[in-house]
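For the sake of transparency, this paper describes our internal protein records without simplification. Such a record has a labelled line for the sequence and another for the backbone structure tokens. Nothing more is needed to write down the fold, since each code stands for a local backbone conformation. For reference, a complete record is included directly beneath this paragraph.
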Amino acid sequence: MTDHDYEQILAAVGRADRIVLGQIGQSLDGRIATASGESKYINGQAALAHLHRLRASVDAVLIGAGTLVADDPQLTVRFCDGKNPARIVIDPSGRGIPGGRWLAPDGALRLALSPTGKAPVECDEVLAFEPPGDAPFDPRQIVQLLAERGLRRVLVEGGSRLLSAFLDADALDRLHVMIAPVIIGSGRIGLDLAPLARLADARRPRVQTFAFGDGDILFDCDLRSNAAQTDQSTEPGAKP
């Protein structure tokens, strides 16, 4: 992929009428943190700049309350030009959303999603949602709630449980996976999805890749398209 192709990926996000994009940075062996929880920084500076360019391209950034507690992120655009997106925190447990740097009064919308309506007083808005009977929340319902609020381009930034829930629910249109050239060996994994009965059921999205100068590689996964299927005459597990 050329630099022009990379710019087109970002431009397509900004032009989309409606898109839900997931983003995750991880090691070669799929880890997002060590066993002790250390995660800063697995990926390099180019990956961080890419994340900020994504933020500048969307209406809203969504994280879970667990990520808020662990990282206290700002969720602003700092490594490129662009407007700060709305900052949204979801609290599936209903235990309450803490304060933090996400509540900085910089003019961007600060919105909480909670089944109980609990939120810091500094929040601009609270949207309540009805949990389904078999899960803490329905990602598709969340996407619809945000769209009705005018937030139609959404970046699901973390953590891993939130991103995995959106992927399992088929609520993501695209997924950006940034792979760093490092092997951690143990620790928290990036995606933890529902088990598959058959390899044939695995997602095989069309993918574009882009190598950054510091060694990180971006996988841009189109989750609404399937890659070309292998020859149907080849038996599963057979050698070519």
